[in-house]
Amino acid sequence: MNLLLIDSRIKDIELIISSVNESTACVVFNYYHDTKETLLSKIKFINRRNRVIRDFFFYEEPPALSVTDISSCHTIDASGNPKQYMSLSDIALQVEEYNVHIKPALTGSEADSMSSSMPLPTPWMLSSVESARVIPVFFQRIRPVMDPVSGTTVLYPRPLPILVSQLDEIYETFKTIPYECDPDNTAQAYCTFSTVGIIQHSYITNGIETYTFLKMLDSNPALLKNVQLHDPTLKTWEPFIMIINELITRHQTQTLDLMACALYSNPDWKYVIDELRSRTSLNIRASLDDTGSSLTGGNWILETHDINLKEVYFTEAIDDWMHQLLDPGYSKCALLLIDNRVTDKNILVSLIPNNCCYLFFDYYTDTLETVLRKISNLNQDEIVYFNSIILIPDNSMAQYITPICSSSSSYKFLESIAPSAVYNVEVDDPNLETWEDFINMLLQLKTVYHPISFEILYPNLNFDVNWNYILKNIKCKTQMQIRAVEWLDSVPGYFKQV
After folding, report:
1. What residues contact residue 150 under an 8 Å CB cut-off, 6+ apart?
2. Ordered DSSP codes for 131-182
3. I need a surface site. Which of 123, 144, 307, 493 has the fewest CB within 10 A?
4. Phi and psi at residue 121, in whole multiples of 5°?
5. What is the pLDDT of residue 105?
6. 271: which DSSP letter?
7. How far is CA 261 from CA 226, 292, 306, in A?
8. Tens of pLDDT along 406-425?
9. CA 156, CA 24: separation in Å to the nearest integer?
10. At residue 340, what are phi and psi to the nearest 5 degrees?
11. What percentage of the chain's residues is helix, strand, coil (to nearest 5)?
């Protein structure tokens, strides 16, 4: 298999993940919090049945939640409080339930046939909302649950994150789970990744004197500027070299692709790459020009070896990723528009990294004009562009999801604007005339800030036929990528820990 290591700060990671071919797996790593040990622990879980690990972890024990109403919580701990993460004991219990209730019901022929097909009869079967082609690691799969209020509606709550400190213990359980471990790899502890690609912002060399793969990897970053003169033996690169050597030893890696624009045309990076080749015996490939979408002037060729990355890692769907592998520079990953009525605002703000902007809007007093003015005041000294704009609405948005609302249901972004039709919208408002104010706001934001996508963060929105129609038509009218996302890690890189 091939393995892609993707920096969580990269733009539109979900498009990259959905574009990989059947021979490629992905691990999205956290530049701020991952260490060599946690990264390697994540990689251990990857095989052809667990092909994607997103950056959806707690890197330290979270503080206790203060929740008074747990009626809508689907996971409760022994003390009756909402669970914040999935523990080793939770996973062991799910395995036991599988062994007791599901496995005995399978005949030998069924088990044999299912061991080589998808979906898999495990405690973590794929739901209808997940891709059977790019399968998430088992502990990040969506587990459908019954709505405790209605008793009949099936909900798809986000999976709980894992504590990184428990990964190694969980892996010991993982090795015993039927149909999850790779039957073609029983003789080896870890999956073989002959080719590993790294997609990261920190490669960029213009005005940069050092390189940092992981911020927690070493207190002193690797020297880059004039490296041949000041660090000819790459002593400052030892932490990065240690990770490379672990990939070689554990996963039999033979080729390393450094995916970035014009890396090998930079004399300092050229020296580093040549020295790394000599020290590790790895086949290291890099580009001489812009790498990325042809629509933005790039290509997917690594000129040092005349290799097309689309033929190694991707399908033609990668053409929808309309970026280059450049440092964001003048741009921000995202602008978060947060309804002031959301709960736990302080926790939410603490998770937003420095490369994002956010503002709280007041549903009752703000107008479209005042919201736009607040955005323009975020960076008064310079024009800042946003790759994505993300709306985080108040929890009361549940009333606008049509399976549980009345026939007169509509949506209002602000109290000051006219309501926008939701229920039966394809019949009653097929041209989205009632959405004109909202669409005009998006068009103004697009003109000034050049976002690629607009996203609404709210659970289960994707499963509503009316919202699907609305989002699809807003996409046509704005020529932006319009998405509803289920949980925070659906927008990788925009949050530090969640």
Report:
1. 404
2. -SSSPBPGGGS---EE-TTTSS-EE-PPPPPEEGGGHHHHHHHHTTSTTTS-
3. 144
4. -85, 70
5. 61
6. H
7. 19, 8, 15
8. 344 788 889 998 899 988 89
9. 27
10. -65, -10
11. 35, 20, 50
* Residue keyed to tokens 């001489």: 288
Q: And the tokens for 84?
A: 């914040």
In this structure, whether the domain defined by 331-490 belongs to CATH 3.30.1450 is answered with no
At position 361, the amino acid (one-letter code) is F
The three-state secondary structure class of 20 is strand
All residue ranges of the chain with pLDDT < 50 are 66-74, 76, 78, 109-121, 129, 187, 205-207, 327-331, 381-382, 397-408, 487-498
381 DSSP assignment: S
For the chain, what is the mean pLDDT?
78
Reduced to 3 states (helix: H, G, I; strand: E, B; else coil), residue 50 is: strand
Rounded (10°) angle between helices 238-251 and 267-280 = 40
pLDDT for 337 = 92
DSSP labels, 95-126: HHHIIIIIGGGS-HHHHHHHTTSSS--STTPP
Q: Where are the domains of the chain?
A: 49-181, 331-490
How is 283-302 classified by DSSP, letter by letter?
A: EEE--SS-BB-GGGT-BSEE
Which of 481, 471, 406 shows the shortest CA–CA distance to 451? Answer: 481
The CA radius of gyration of the chain, in Å to the nearest whole number, is 24
